[in-house]
Fold:
Amino acid sequence: MRLFSGHSPILLVSRVALAFSWIYQGLVPKIVCRSPGEIRLLEPVVPVFQLACTLVEWMGYGELLFGVLLLVLQKRWVFHLNILLLLVLLAYVALVEPGMFTLPFNPLTLNVALIALSLVALIELKQEEKM
Structure:
């Protein structure tokens, strides 16, 4: 498939893993299952329950789209944006629901791993640009 040809296996694995994470997090807890935890995270800024539900769904579609962008765009800025978004989401959770950081498989461990994958992808892209 042309989309994935000509790139290092490390870059491909990083891109697919990042895209999978965004697509899954957008689809499963926000669109398909509409997790109460996702809605609860919005309560401080969106106190109307139905509006929060709608916003969570739209956020899910945004995450799906971003996951696809991570797969198809060959640009460094996508990975920089990924790091920025993950840091913003991490800061938001720290302010709104800091107790989540004590749970297994919590936002801190997930986001740090995804940021690390983004850094790996950026390093690989830089190496490919030198060739």
The chain has one domain: 2-130. The helical segments are 9-32, 36-42, 49-72, 76-96, 107-130. The chain has a mean pLDDT of 93.
